[in-house]
Amino acid sequence: GGDIHRSPLQRLRQVKSCGEAETNPSFVGGISSVEGITRERISDGVVYRGPFGLGLKKGVDGYASVLDNMKNTVPSRLEKTSTGEVSRQVVSSNELLVRRYVQFEAPIPPPVRFGVRQLPPSTKFSPDNPDKVLCRVDILSNIRTDSNGKIVEHEDVIMNGFELDDVISVFNFLMATRTDQNIVGWWFDVNSAMTRAELSQYSEEYKNAEDSEFDSYFGNVILRNFLTGVGIPLAFYLVYKIGQIH
Questions:
Q1: What is the Cα–Cα distance from 23 to 149, expressed in whole angstroms?
Q2: Greatest distance between any 2 Cα atoms in the chain
Q3: What is the pLDDT of residue 110?
Q4: Spatial separation of the C-alpha atoms in residues 5 and 218, rounded to whole Å
Q5: Beta strand extents in the chain (DSSP E only)
């Protein structure tokens, strides 16, 4: 009933606090891994929701493209990628929570190189290249099936915080998850969604703002959250907005 609209993180907290779980699942037990889900396990009406509301996909083809992206495209776009599963929690016979991670290396962004931003003490650097940092993104997947064991809903949330090393990790990961959108538009959407998520921790105003209102705000502060240089992000933003006009 009311649990359907809870986020994966809310469901995880609920399960931990109530001890809610089933030891003999009948519908979700055959899901060995997120990347290993086959088309036969997907319902025609499946809905996928990506982190921060990005990458909404519906239907078998849309969801299958997300799974293929996770398995093949994302690792190819990142450096020295490794993945794994941290834990899984069977909430009920048709609901599964899976916590997994993606590890990789990413270049230190120009703002850090130029001294505009400082990396936190927790940052880990590549043993092979001091100009790169070791990144890790933790993802919580909430997967629901119907009574036939076919997946009808999959939502991913990112569990990282907003320290600069986390921001670098999450930004590079989300950029690698781009599917059919042009890179300029995706860059804007990723930065906007991350900024909104961070600011929403401090004020409900940002969380509840209309998309157009937040886009206007984000356009005014885009240099605050840049990760790829000073001139390039602004140029991307201007090109994106001009493209929307035409």
A1: 16
A2: 56
A3: 77
A4: 28
A5: 42-49, 57-58, 79-92, 95-107, 132-145, 151-158
